[in-house]
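Structure in, sequence out. Go:
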């Protein structure tokens, strides 16, 4: 079916222009300037579906390259399934997710990946891909890294945190980076000094400091900066591309920026929670309410200026991507596992539905431009993880993943209106200027106004290429 999106302001990473978007089937066929009659017919009369986008932005569908649907963690599982989580993503203008298949020590990597394929197959409302977590670096898993690259899994996540669960020591990280340098894949790193953090956690609990706020206080910025520096040094030694996930401390990003200024192949990601939420206002909420905001890396102090510095680094491109680290756990029976002991609170916040809106507030507030908004939400993540040019921009030949965004809309984020499988909202009460009006996934309208028109199983698995940022 052919669709024409008329009279909108098309926003690509190169800027904004008034244009019509012509879609045939699942792909974009043309961007047409006003008065362009290259097809020699009145397209408004000849196509099956005409969408008027007057006064609205037409942007590429969001690409969220950091989600954790159904993740087993802390004795429970993330509350969003691939069905509920991908549907919520669609409501928020995201049309592609890249989730994480999890391998633990002693498990074959291929078996772990097969388990995640089984979770997602036939369930997703939008297109999806996988990164691979390597929880046990050994000869077999290193061989599997080479095999998975050929299958479209071109990024591998390691952890410097969570000893006994996901943790890799420096020697294991070195070997994995050497393998990545050889096959062209990207190493994604959770950069926190987990050994030191475990000592600080044990000391806090022994003192009786068990409230949720101590989750942040026992993961101080020094543990993030130190691990970031160490990961960068190992990447420099091996030549592996390095992408540091969910950066929250300005000092850690300072370290990353210094390496980038020297020309090293290192990249940083942050998340909306680190731009909007804080240790003082949220993680230190009265009673057990701070548990809503327990995530790792932790929320940082607003008084110390972390949030403003992260916005600055988004402008300078030292932080290249904003993803969500979407890993929701309900308060009831999940976060409550940590009553009386913050170390047992499952780590994670639900954000997949709100990323595009929250980043647009950066445009409204003058932190970033319209083009930078699109870069952060769509284009750069698609390029970083081998999905471009199929995803990430609006031009002929790209998938027709299109969002019509109304800058005149007004929304208020609330648990009462969100679509995530989550019994609270970490962003409760935040007023949003602007909002998603219509979402197309590969040419099919899946959100229209306040209606969900999608279906589970529409989403296709994406085999990814290598990063386009390799040097």
């Amino acid at each position: 079916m052919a669709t024409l999106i008329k009279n909108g302001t098309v926003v690509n990473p190169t800027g904004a222009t008034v244009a019509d978007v012509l879609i045939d089937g699942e792909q974009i066929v043309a961007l047409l300037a006003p008065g362009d009659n290259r097809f020699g017919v009145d397209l408004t009369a000849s196509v099956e579906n005409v969408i008027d986008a007057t006064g609205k932005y037409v942007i590429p569908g969001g690409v969220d390259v950091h989600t954790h649907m159904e993740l087993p963690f802390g004795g429970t599982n993330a509350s969003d399934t691939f069905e509920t989580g991908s549907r919520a993503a669609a409501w928020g203008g995201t049309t592609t997710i890249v989730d994480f298949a999890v391998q633990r020590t002693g498990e074959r990597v291929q078996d772990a990946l097969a388990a995640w394929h089984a979770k997602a197959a036939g369930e997703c409302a939008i297109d999806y891909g996988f990164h691979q977590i390597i929880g046990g670096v050994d000869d077999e898993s290193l061989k599997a890294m080479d095999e998975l690259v050929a299958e479209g899994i071109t990024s591998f996540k390691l952890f410097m945190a969570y000893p006994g669960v996901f943790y890799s020591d420096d020697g294991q990280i070195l070997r994995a980076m050497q393998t990545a340098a050889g096959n062209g894949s990207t190493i994604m790193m959770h950069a926190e000094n987990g050994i030191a953090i475990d000592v600080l956690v044990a000391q806090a609990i022994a003192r009786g400091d068990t409230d949720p706020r101590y989750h942040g206080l026992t993961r101080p910025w020094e543990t993030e900066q130190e691990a970031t520096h160490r990961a960068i040094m190992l990447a420099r030694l091996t030549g592996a591309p390095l992408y540091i996930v969910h950066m929250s401390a300005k000092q850690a990003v300072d370290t990353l920026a210094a390496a980038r200024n020297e020309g090293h192949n290192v990249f940083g990601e942050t998340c909306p929670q680190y731009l909007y939420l804080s240790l003082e206002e949220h993680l230190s909420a009265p009673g057990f309410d701070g548990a809503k905001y327990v995530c790792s890396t932790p929320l940082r102090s607003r008084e110390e200026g972390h949030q403003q510095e992260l916005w600055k680094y988004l402008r300078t491109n030292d932080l290249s991507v904003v993803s969500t680290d979407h890993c929701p756990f309900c308060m009831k029976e999940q976060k409550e596992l940590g009553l009386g002991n913050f170390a047992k609170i499952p780590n994670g916040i639900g954000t997949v539905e709100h990323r595009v809106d929250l980043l647009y507030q950066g445009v409204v507030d003058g932190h970033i431009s319209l083009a930078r908004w699109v870069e952060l939400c769509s284009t750069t993540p698609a390029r970083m993880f081998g999905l471009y040019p199929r995803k990430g921009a609006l031009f002929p030949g790209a998938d027709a993943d299109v969002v019509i965004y109304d800058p005149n809309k007004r929304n208020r984020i609330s648990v009462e209106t969100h679509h995530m499988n989550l019994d609270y909202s970490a962003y409760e009460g935040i007023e949003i200027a602007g909002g998603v009006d219509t979402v197309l996934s590969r040419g099919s309208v899946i959100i229209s106004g306040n209606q969900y028109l999608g279906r589970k199983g529409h989403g296709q698995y994406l085999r990814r290429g290598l990063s386009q940022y390799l040097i």
